[in-house]
Amino acid sequence: MDLRHAIECDAPEPAPLPPGSYRAILQESHDAAIVLDDDMKIVFANASAVRMFGYSRRALLGRPIDRLLPESARKQHVGWMRSMQRAEVHSRPMGPRGRIQALRADGSLIWIEGTVVAYQIAGAPYYAALLRDATQCVEAEEQLQQLAADAQRLARARSSFIANMSHELRTPLNAVIGFAECVAKASVGDLPDKYREYGTHIHEAGEHLLAVINDILAMSELESRQRLLHETELRVRDVADQVCRMLSIRAAKGGHRIVADVPAHLLLYGDAVALPQILINLVGNSLKYSTQPGCVRIAARLLDGGELEIAVEDQGVGMAREEVSQATQPFRRFAKDSLANVAGTGLGLAIVDALVWLHGARMTIESELGVGTTVRLLFPTGRVRFAS
Ligand SMILES: Nc1ncnc2c1ncn2[C@@H]1O[C@H](COP(=O)(O)OP(=O)(O)OP(=O)(O)O)[C@@H](O)[C@H]1O
Ligand SMILES: [Mg+2]
């Protein structure tokens, strides 16, 4: 039975196409179409197949399919096609992973993907393959995988470099800070005032540098997903009071007050290091970016939906809309007209944002220039507990 007849007889019901349609469609298709008989010889190849494999039609017709397959894949592929007839599977994606390698006339290998259809005409098995060249796709995927692997390697190298560097810097820095404090306090014998003043400067500069190194290390741990939460039930009021005490001297220097307005029964299931770290950063910002003496407020409340909101409010210099949208980006800082040379690395809010995210919580910033800023943290109901 000739192939044209075979294809045209096999028209699906109930809408048969006009005679000759199947052959025309196959002939003109941009997908390569190849039909094999039971001896695995090519009995049909359309123009796209001729282009794809680089053989003339005459060099394909009547030749075994082996011609188009690399030697290593021939046996497996032919066996796989025959198994379709045995199992009465009528169509399958090409090859076990949807793609196989094929051999062109010039000896080069290409990746092809598509569908294999197994059918019978008057009891004689046939196989049709509708194929596309997937070489560019496969190469792009391989490149992407390579890039992702490189990026992961680089990220790991960067994290371990930062961790080692931070350790190497912190050890001598702690010695500098400790001895500078001795000099500032003249704890081992009297010293001229000037030297004590220098000691104080070294001490302050050392403390600042240590804070920067700690922030860089914290950010690096968060970015490389190495920071894990150690969760316990935290009494939010205790944490707020602790933060108020820790920052009270800094607040008093600028004439500010920090107040905590937190109901005693509210507990948060969270990390005992992260929550103070979050609040210290937020209250620290409120103090740093307030020119006029004022009040910084830490407030917590239960929302109607059962979430816990913790807010830090100030009446400081505020932020423009553009600043608000970029403030959580690492190392992003903004010059403030009303504040000259405020120290900082621009990591505080990035660290807060990442810690908040680790808790499955959300952070929002409301701010207006010259009016003040409120940062709200919204912890999900699953983290809220109540003291008995
Ligand atoms: N309460 C606030 N009021 C006004 N501006 C703020 C406030 N909090 C943050 N900002 C702005 O957002 C920027 C980013 O804040 P972030 O805490 O990340 O960095 P930083 O305070 O500059 O430095 P670091 O916290 O690393 O010492 C700040 O430089 C500042 O411009
Ligand atoms: Mg900050």
TrEMBL record:
<keyword id="KW-0808">Transferase</keyword>
<keyword id="KW-0597">Phosphoprotein</keyword>
<dbReference type="Pfam" id="PF00512">
    <property type="entry name" value="HisKA"/>
</dbReference>
<dbReference type="InterPro" id="IPR000014">
    <property type="entry name" value="PAS"/>
</dbReference>
<dbReference type="Pfam" id="PF00989">
    <property type="entry name" value="PAS"/>
</dbReference>
<dbReference type="InterPro" id="IPR036890">
    <property type="entry name" value="HATPase_C_sf"/>
</dbReference>
<dbReference type="InterPro" id="IPR013767">
    <property type="entry name" value="PAS_fold"/>
</dbReference>
<dbReference type="GO" id="GO:0009927">
    <property type="term" value="F:histidine phosphotransfer kinase activity"/>
</dbReference>
<dbReference type="GO" id="GO:0006355">
    <property type="term" value="P:regulation of DNA-templated transcription"/>
</dbReference>
<dbReference type="InterPro" id="IPR005467">
    <property type="entry name" value="His_kinase_dom"/>
</dbReference>
<dbReference type="GO" id="GO:0005886">
    <property type="term" value="C:plasma membrane"/>
</dbReference>
<dbReference type="InterPro" id="IPR003661">
    <property type="entry name" value="HisK_dim/P_dom"/>
</dbReference>
<dbReference type="InterPro" id="IPR035965">
    <property type="entry name" value="PAS-like_dom_sf"/>
</dbReference>
<keyword id="KW-0418">Kinase</keyword>
<dbReference type="Pfam" id="PF02518">
    <property type="entry name" value="HATPase_c"/>
</dbReference>
<feature type="domain" description="PAS">
    <location>
        <begin position="22"/>
        <end position="72"/>
    </location>
</feature>
<protein>
    <recommendedName>
        <fullName>histidine kinase</fullName>
        <ecNumber>2.7.13.3</ecNumber>
    </recommendedName>
</protein>
<feature type="domain" description="Histidine kinase">
    <location>
        <begin position="164"/>
        <end position="383"/>
    </location>
</feature>
<dbReference type="GO" id="GO:0000155">
    <property type="term" value="F:phosphorelay sensor kinase activity"/>
</dbReference>
<dbReference type="InterPro" id="IPR004358">
    <property type="entry name" value="Sig_transdc_His_kin-like_C"/>
</dbReference>
<dbReference type="InterPro" id="IPR036097">
    <property type="entry name" value="HisK_dim/P_sf"/>
</dbReference>
<dbReference type="InterPro" id="IPR003594">
    <property type="entry name" value="HATPase_dom"/>
</dbReference>
